[in-house]
Batch of 2 targets.
Target 1
Amino acid sequence: MPTVKINARDIIIQVAETNGTTWTPIGGLNSAVPNAGENEEVVDTTTFDSAGNYEQEVIQRGATLALEGFLLKDPANGAQDPGQARVEALATQVGFASVGKIRFRHPVDTQWKVWNATFSLGEHGGGNNDKYAWVATITRSGPSTTAAVSASVAEDGE
């Protein structure tokens, strides 16, 4: 079977609720950019034996997921999109409580990428002819893990 180009807009991103087993999609997104090299640290290992060639080793790996979109609220009751609200709740926490879980994948993937992560909110708002922007950065804390995509749509929260 030939390979295909994957649409960036088809990425599925979910945040874990406080129980750690229920996953909620984050709505209203129009940009999701994983950065597998963010927070990476290297050490210079160049010596005289390197013969003038730079050498290095990676000492720390890191990653972020930058999200941008529009603030979503129910006009009848003011309730925010549940995924956005969960990210915002995590973004107010400190210490151990500031670490939550996120998972993401494309529809053709058979595995979720799962991160323990911290959550930070970016600039919100907009100008005269704009919709209200919603921005968050999710920073991986610890190693990336995977989880199988289950056969049950309800279990995956889709």
Note: The two ends are 26 Å apart (CA to CA).
Target 2
Amino acid sequence: MKLKQADLLFVKNGHSDLDEGIAESTGNFVHVAILADEENVIHATADSGVCLQSLQLFLEKNKSADVYRTNVKNTKRIIFNAKTHLGKPYNFSFQPGTNSFYCSQFVVTAFEDFVKFSEQPMFFGDRRKQISDFWAAYYKD
């Protein structure tokens, strides 16, 4: 499959502590990016906030990604929307209503004029507790 502008690249759990915490809420996928063009992605990362990154570097770091393609025709507008948020900080609280983004929150915003993705709020529990030990320590820090 040839990648196209505005494809979504979903990254599976790499089994870091943060990945494991996120996977408890989201399942197998722990990160998502938007393909900006043939050579770059736009995504929200803890290290850089909303950034433009080479596809090559993205894949080197994440090893592989599953691709999802919407039926949106105006992909240029989606990328324009996404680029208006470049440089904004990462949303470390994972809460709505801030001027910062975590990865899926960023995707929902970039696509909001074209696709109404149903957002699922982060779930901070695990199978044993309403708030897992990982998230309790995360927010304590």
Note: The two ends are 42 Å apart (CA to CA).
